[in-house]
């Protein structure tokens, strides 16, 4: 009998399905959206793409309970594989869990130094060496440029790919000359890739504002299923 999870892995590689290039080691990406638009779910979806390829993921949540993040993984896996013949979401979850570690900080206790010390502790005590870091919920209003520069240094030293989420506010319309909105409009040079998510009817619209260090003209983007974040439709 074939390995079911291997079949599912070949059928679904979420990062490759999205119209964006994977981050390179030492590079940082940013996902910007308003509250409730699916930032955590989308980052979890990206993480699953790495986990299916047995790439270790450290998911750091700031002011988010770890149990909530675990639930996102469980629910997304169910949604992704429920209608695929021969796929067992529970078995896939069991297989990928050793490659995932979830860590939580409060915003007032987070610092780049504590983050790197935690990474070192994981490597030394559990032999867990992440290749992807999800940093979800860090408040961009409370942290200045130096914090992100320090995390960039950590990414370089550790060989990490780092994805952030950032919250966009309706009452702040600042956008820089390169088309990058608040809260990244003053620090966009630190990120290799910048994406935005917006709700649109029964779907999610993803736009790529920056990719592989290059700023792209903002197009209409692509539509994603809000339950799985799989590609629904690509538009010109």
Keywords:
236 residues, alpha/beta, 10 strands, globular, disordered N terminus
Descriptive account of the structure:
The protein has 236 residues and is of the alpha/beta class. It is 33% helix and 24% strand. The chain contains seven helices and ten strands. Strands 1, 2, 3, 4, 5, 6, 7, 8, 9 and 10 form a ten-stranded mixed sheet that branches. Helix 4 crosses helix 5.
How many strand elements?
A: 10
Beta fraction of the residues? 15-25%
Would you tell me the structural class of the helices and strands?
Answer: alpha/beta
| Average predicted confidence as pLDDT | 86
Q: Helicity, in percent?
A: 25-40%
Largest β-sheet summary: 10 strands, mixed
Q: Sum up the overall morphology in one term.
A: globular
Low-confidence stretches: 1-6
Termini separation:
43 Å
- CA radius of gyration is 17 Å
Number of helices: 7
Order of helices and strands: HHEHEHHEHEHEEEEEE
């Amino acid at each position: 009998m074939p390995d079911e999870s291997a079949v599912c892995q070949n059928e679904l590689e979420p990062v490759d399905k999205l119209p964006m290039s994977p981050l390179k080691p030492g590079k940082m990406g940013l996902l910007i959206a308003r509250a409730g638009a699916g930032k955590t779910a989308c980052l979890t979806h990206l993480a699953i793409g790495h986990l299916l390829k047995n790439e270790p993921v450290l998911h750091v949540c700031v002011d988010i309970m770890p149990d909530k993040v675990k639930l996102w993984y469980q629910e997304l896996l169910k949604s992704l594989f429920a209608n695929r013949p021969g796929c067992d979401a529970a078995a896939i979850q069991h297989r990928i869990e050793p490659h995932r570690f979830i860590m939580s900080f409060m915003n007032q206790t987070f610092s780049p130094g504590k983050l790197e010390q935690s990474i070192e502790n994981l490597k030394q005590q559990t032999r867990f060496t992440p290749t992807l870091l999800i940093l979800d919920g860090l408040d961009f209003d409370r942290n200045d440029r130096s914090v992100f520069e320090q995390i960039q240094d950590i990414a370089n030293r550790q060989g990490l790919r780092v994805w952030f989420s950032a919250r966009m506010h309706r009452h702040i319309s600042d956008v820089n000359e390169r088309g990058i909105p608040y809260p990244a409009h003053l620090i966009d040079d630190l990120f290799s890739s910048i994406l935005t998510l917006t709700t649109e009817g029964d779907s999610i619209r993803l736009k790529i504002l920056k990719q592989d260090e290059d700023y792209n003209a903002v197009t209409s983007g692509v539509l994603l299923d809000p339950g799985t974040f799989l590609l629904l439709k690509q538009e010109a």
